[in-house]
Amino acid sequence: MRWLSPLRIVNAPLHFVTDAFDLRNARAHTPYRATVGGLVRGDTNGLTFRRAGGPAWISVLANGDVTGTPPLSHKGPLRVEARNANGETASATVGVEVRLPGDKLVAELRTASFTLWHSGSQVAGGREKEIRFLLKSAVDVVGPQESSATSTRELAEALGWDHHQAGTDIGVISRYPIVEREPPGSGWLSVATKVRVRLDDLDVVVWNVHLGYNPYGPHDACFGKMTQDQLMANEERSGRTPQIKAILQEMRPDIADASRVRVLLTGDFDAPSHLDWTPGTRRCGHNPVPWPASVLPIQAGLRDSYRVANPDPVATPGTTWSPIYPVFTGGYGYDSHIGEPEPQDRIDFVYFAGPLRVSDSDVVVEGRPAPVPGHGSNAWPSDHAAVVTTFRTP
Predict the structure, then answer these.
(1) Rounded Cα–Cα distance for residues 140 and 17 (Å)
(2) In whole angstroms, what is the distance from residue 254 CA to residue 241 CA?
(3) What is the domain extent for residue 28?
(4) CATH number of the domain to which 44 belongs
(5) Within its chain, how far is the Cα of 226 from the centroid?
(6) How far apart, in Å, do the first and last CA atoms of the chain sit?
(7) Residues 129, 66 share a domain
(8) d(CA 359, CA 208)
């Protein structure tokens, strides 16, 4: 797991959410526009922006829009200053990568699955911490869960990115244009959404899901001591098995076309992976457990990006549940186990299909999260770790 430096939330001074970040890529000789207008916190009354240094081709408008037409030769980062009505100032170093004509606009695509934990409402300054994580991680496409109907839009507006909010739970946020959006499905498909992202010269189909959470397989295996047959029956009862079957059925045309249009599947699956419950790990005394929510995507032609980059589940377990629940706090029919170790599992995923190449994949939190109930001031706004995968786009 990679630990990012902690974030300090200070109410008084005007400040950018982070003092260095990148905007979307530009192409030489092509008009460019992005924005930093939503990335300042503090007293933003009368806020204006200006270019304080950097390449001459870039203009910074008073509203924070970054515009211009880059030449073939591009030198150095941009320096942006924000000023409020009281005369307070804040500045940030902003990167814009300029790609040459004929080169891929996005040579590396960074993708994240990120559970917002009730829109970041469970920690102080949660929204700012979410934005800062997305900027520091330099992600391009994000599959958020627990977005509470508006957070996908609000995050995208702050970042100056594109978005699709599907119902009250899930969505997609993209640094690059979303050119197709599918409305929320019904029945088992209500937990999934799909968009098409355009990277200038390449389209990527992005699915994001949030599967059912109860009953929860690791609790059944570790507390309930269930047999494999009982575990499989409960996976069906939770809705996860019929949900992933229905989603993969809808994804079949996309996966079949993945050599032309790349495919990503992000999500909080609320289930472990069979690639982690192996003879080498012997989780809760079990030999391999064929958790359907991971077996079925791989059978359908998808690949688990984290396990491509980190094939040994003993050396790199990749735990995403949970950085703040080291012990079981009750519920799910297992209150007699309160105070026992919470099963730690990898339940958040970035799957892919097509000729993408995994450069790296990691699970990420920010700071050193304090466990519940002392989590309110955590730098990390979620109860899950995020998964961030970098793909090369050949």
Answers:
(1) 18
(2) 20
(3) 2-99
(4) 2.60.40.60
(5) 32
(6) 27
(7) no
(8) 21
Verify that 135 and 31 share a domain, yes or no: no
Backbone angles phi, psi at 151, to 5 degrees: -70, -35
User: Among the three residues 74, 99, 124, which one is the final residue of a domain in this structure?
Assistant: 99
Note whether 211 and 176 are same-domain residues.
yes
- Residue 167 and residue 278 in one domain: yes
Using the predicted structure, report yes or no on whether residue 335 has a pLDDT greater than 70.
yes
pLDDT digits (tens, 9 = 90+) for 232-273: 999 999 999 999 999 999 999 999 999 999 999 999 999 999
Task: Give the predicted TM-score (pTM) of the model.
Answer: 0.94
CA gap 261, 282 in Å, rounded: 38
Strand partners, 215: none
pLDDT per position as a tens digit, 123-166: 999 999 999 999 999 999 999 999 999 999 999 999 999 999 99
User: Of 99, 116, 147, which closes a domain?
Assistant: 99
6 prior amide bond cis, ω within 30:
no
Rounded Cα–Cα distance for residues 5 and 379 (Å): 9
DSSP 38-59: T-EES--TT-EEEEEES-TT-E
Q: What is the CATH number of the domain that holds 140?
A: 3.60.10.10
Residue 229 sits in the same domain as residue 130: yes
Q: Do residues 26 and 72 make contact, with C-beta atoms less than 8 angstroms apart? A: no
Element (H, E) at 351: strand 348-353
- Give the chain's length: 394
Parallel/antiparallel/unpaired status of strands 2-4 and 357-366: parallel
Angle (nearest 5°) at CA 46 between 44 and 51: 85
The SS3 call for residue 277 is: coil
Asked if 46 and 180 sit in the same domain, the reply is no
Rounded to whole angstroms, the Cα distance separating 352 from 264 reads 4
Same domain? For 88 and 130 the reply is: no
The answer to whether the CB of 310 falls within 8 A of the CB of 318 is yes
The pLDDT, as a whole number, for residue 3 is: 52
The number of folded domains in the chain is: 2
